[in-house]
Design a protein that fits this description.
Elements: H1 2-13, H2 18-21, H3 25-51, H4 55-69, H5 71-82, H6 88-101, H7 105-134, E1 143-148, E2 151-156, E3 165-168, E4 178-183, E5 185-188, H8 190-193, E6 199-201, E7 206-207, E8 212-213, E9 218-222, H9 230-244, H10 251-278, H11 282-296, H12 299-318, E10 321-323, H13 326-332, E11 337-340, H14 342-346, E12 347-358, H15 364-375, H16 381-392, E13 401-406, E14 410-415, E15 418-423, H17 425-430, H18 436-447, E16 451-457, E17 460-471, H19 475-484, E18 489-493, H20 498-508, E19 512-514, H21 519-533, E20 536-540, H22 546-551, E21 554-558, H23 564-569, E22 572-574, H24 580-616, H25 621-639
């Protein structure tokens, strides 16, 4: 737990501008070596100091650690100066220089080593995320079974030409985009489109790489090469969204922009004005200026953000919330709208039977038992829901005979001497059973947000079953709490069809609904929400959510069901499916930001008092050191309280 929290927390301690600098792998390695050397020197010096041996070596090691650890912060500080700004790196350089100037070598080495380690972890995290996005294409098979003039043979994925005929067996993942040439099957498109139900595919229908074939075999004419598939375009969308997201300027950076130059200017004025205007002795006022610089040494300010963030992230990790950096905590506190994916995020992803509507003389209980009997031999999620409901109602289910799956359409078999068919309206239409009255009844079920399953006995419709993907028990409460207590609007962005999406939104109290959204549509929906309401947090779990997670101000992935790509594209991962963790994360972010501001206020107030004493000549160097140490102790003591945040 500690390792996870520290790594995530340390990611936050950096300057917050790594996004636009995008360090090369070589730079990351060099920073890693410099950080390792600095930390190693500090550890060795502390060991020698504890053993009270080689005191001269202790000082030398601390100075060396401060020098090595300052290399990259100094480099970034210079880069910021060239842009005409002062960031936390410049603040760190001033802190270390001030500590070394007054002989506080241990403090300078400790602070800069922590800071250097944080920046290296941040750079490494970004590099790892880029590699993970590149590995997204590896979710596709590496070779394809192609039917040609010489028969069937496996061909490497990159060597498959356009127009080739690809054979997809039941249960296999599709490797390339194409159009169905022959066969019929239900295809799980949730990884790409987010649709809750598998989609029936027959001749002429388009299929996508990364989706999963159901129970039927398909022959598919390849229409796009690997680099042009829908899955590859999702990768490109994620990379583009991450590149275009504006870098975050942390609160401490904004504070440093005026604090550091103000202190330096004030010290220069204290040293020079009395000498030039009142002919005062230079050595007296130079000493007072040095005391002023030491009092103002921003060590406590520099650690005000990292100690608060590390404490908060350690507590978050203990509660099953993994945050990749302090910048994301700061952004989360300013969120104005939370957008949810539906299937698997607001819902359980498991279907339940909601209604049984008899269409003739048979009672609803018998219609259900007949349907459940023939569905016992099906592995479809809807079949499992029908069977589970019938079994919970009690009674024995008859053993079916001659059961035959109708891929993408339904199932049929003999139950108690009668042929029972369960299927989609399309199946009943193909068999000439879909009368206007039956079509209207099925449309009513669909309009209520349910998925209809029609049941027939010996060619006559006897009932309609309505199924739905149930929302998570805590979903409605969390949405209401976000709206009432966190002052955020709630949106649903889903690839599911409009009727079930709007029915779910009405049940949960969602403010904005955007249905039938493909990955690029979800990205555009996030941008539209940002323009309309302000900062957006996107919560999702699938590959199809990755572009929206990357483009949002804060991307939040559901960790248990979430795909690896969604977890990498997101800024925060909820390691359980409990949506209440989302509100916890938002409240923690606000508490952390408040804690950082209190830390800065404590440090500044204490230093302001000693600044006055320094100018008046009352404060001495040892008092200045005590003031700086005291401020640091107060900051740390206040920050550790976040570990216990509830």
């Amino acid at each position: 737990m500690t390792t996870t929290a520290t790594a995530a927390g340390a990611h936050a301690i950096g300057c917050g501008h790594c996004v636009d600098e995008a360090p090369a792998p070589t730079g990351v390695r060099l920073r890693g070596w410099a950080t390792a050397i600095a930390v190693g020197l500090v550890a060795l010096a502390c060991g020698l100091a504890y053993l009270t041996v080689l005191p001269a070596w202790v000082t030398t090691l601390f100075v060396a650690a401060a020098a090595v650890g300052s290399v990259f912060p100094a480099q970034r500080a210079l880069h910021a100066l060239r842009r005409g700004s002062l960031d936390i790196n410049a603040l760190m350089v001033v802190a270390v220089a001030g500590a070394v100037a007054i002989g506080e070598y241990e403090e300078g080495a400790m602070v800069v080593s922590l800071f250097a380690a944080a920046q290296w972890l941040e750079a490494q995290s970004l590099d790892r995320a880029r590699k993970a996005i590149g590995r997204l294409l590896d979710t596709s098979p590496t070779s394809v079974l192609i039917r040609g003039a010489e028969g069937e043979q496996h061909v490497p994925l990159d060597a498959v030409p356009l127009g080739a005929v690809m054979i997809v067996r039941p249960g296999e993942k599709l490797a390339l985009d194409g159009v169905v040439e022959g066969g019929r099957s239900d295809v799980n498109q949730a990884p790409i489109t987010g649709e809750a139900l598998p989609v029936e595919k027959a001749e002429g229908d388009e299929v996508f790489a990364g989706t999963i074939n159901g129970s039927g075999a398909l022959t598919v004419t390849v229409t796009r090469r690997r680099a042009d598939t829908t899955l590859a375009r999702i990768v490109h969308l994620v990379e583009t969204a991450q590149a275009q997201r504006a870098p975050v300027q942390q609160f401490i950076d904004r504070f440093a922009a005026w604090y550091t130059p103000a202190v330096v200017i004030l010290a220069a004025l204290v040293a020079l004005l009395p000498v030039l205007l009142a002919n005062q002795p230079l050595d007296v006022w130079l000493y007072r200026a040095l005391v002023l610089l030491v009092v103002a040494c921003p060590c406590a300010l520099v650690i005000s953000t990292p100690v608060s963030v590390v404490s908060a992230l350690a507590g978050a990790a203990a509660h099953g919330v993994l945050v990749k950096g302090g910048a994301h905590l700061e952004r989360l506190a300013a969120i104005r709208v939370v957008a949810f994916d539906k299937t698997g995020t607001l819902t359980n992803g498991k279907f339940s039977l909601e209604t049984v509507t008899p269409l003739g003389p048979l009672p609803a209980a018998l219609v259900l038992k007949l349907a459940a009997a023939v569905e016992t031999h099906s592995e479809h999620p809807i079949a499992a829901a029908i069977v589970a409901h019938a079994q919970s109602a009690g009674g024995r289910l008859a053993a079916p005979a001659e059961v035959r799956a109708l891929p993408g359409l339904g199932v049929e078999g003999i139950v108690d001497g009668a042929r029972i068919v369960c299927g989609t309206p399309r199946l009943f239409g193909e068999r000439g059973w879909l009368t206007p009255a039956l079509a209207e009844a099925a449309a009513e079920v669909t309009g209520s947000g349910l998925s209809p399953v029609l049941v027939a006995r010996d060619g006559v419709a006897i009932g309609i079953l309505g199924l739905r993907d149930r929302p998570k028990p805590e979903a409605a409460g969390i949405i209401a709490a976000l709206q009432q207590h966190e002052a955020t609007r709630v949106a649903m962005i889903t690839g599911d069809h409009d009727a079930p999406a709007r029915a779910m939104a009405a049940e949960l109290g969602v403010d904005v609904v955007k249905s039938q959204q493909l990955p690029h549509d979800k990205l555009a929906a996030v941008e539209a929400l940002r323009k309309q309401f302000g900062a957006v947090a996107m919560v999702g779990d699938g590959v199809n959510d990755a572009p929206a997670l990357a483009a949002s101000d804060v991307g939040i992935a559901m960790g248990v069901m979430g795909s690896a790509v969604a977890l990498e594209a997101a800024d925060i991962a909820l390691m359980t499916d409990d949506l209440s963790k989302l509100r916890y994360a938002i409240r923690l972010s606000k508490a952390t930001l408040a804690n950082i501001r209190v830390n800065i206020a404590l440090s500044v107030a204490l230093k302001a008092a000693f600044l006055v004493l320094a100018i008046l000549g009352v404060a001495t160097l040892w008092m200045a050191v005590l003031a700086d140490t005291g401020a640091s102790a107060l900051v740390v003591a206040n920050a550790v309280r976040l570990r216990a945040f509830r």
